[in-house]
Amino acid sequence: MHRLTKADAEYVFYHDETNNIKKLGLDMQRFNVTKPGVFVLGGVVHDGAPRRKDIPV
């Protein structure tokens, strides 16, 4: 469909929810935050199964 290739392949997406306010509420007149920021979902994708990474702390 629409010439989309590899749509059924397995991928792993490590993501960061930059500027996520966690919980957005709305009452009859306003949001629970005065100025909702721009929400960006960004990250790194690789094909195949998840790979174990040992990162020293």
Quick summary:
The protein is an all-beta fold and 57 residues long.
Write the layout of secondary structure elements.
Blueprint: E1 11-18, E2 40-47
Antiparallel strand pairs: 1-2
Care to describe what's here?
The chain has 57 residues and is mostly beta strands. It has a domain at 18-47. The chain has no helices and two strands. It has strands spanning 11-18, 40-47. Strands 1-2 form a two-stranded antiparallel ribbon. The model has no long low-confidence stretch (mean pLDDT 78).
Using DSSP, what is the number of strands?
Answer: 2
Q: Approximately how much beta-strand content do the residues carry?
A: 25-35%
Sequence stretches where pLDDT stays below 50 over 5 or more residues: none
Oligomer: single chain
The whole-angstrom Rg is 18 Å
Biggest sheet character: 2 strands, antiparallel
Global morphology: flat
Q: What's the helix count?
A: 0
How far do the termini sit from each other? Answer: 45 Å
Residue-averaged pLDDT, rounded?
Answer: 78
- In helices, the fraction of residues equals under 10%
- What is the helix/strand order? EE
Please state the structural category.
Answer: mainly beta
Arrangement of strands in the largest sheet: 1-2
Keywords:
mainly beta; 57 residues; two-stranded antiparallel ribbon
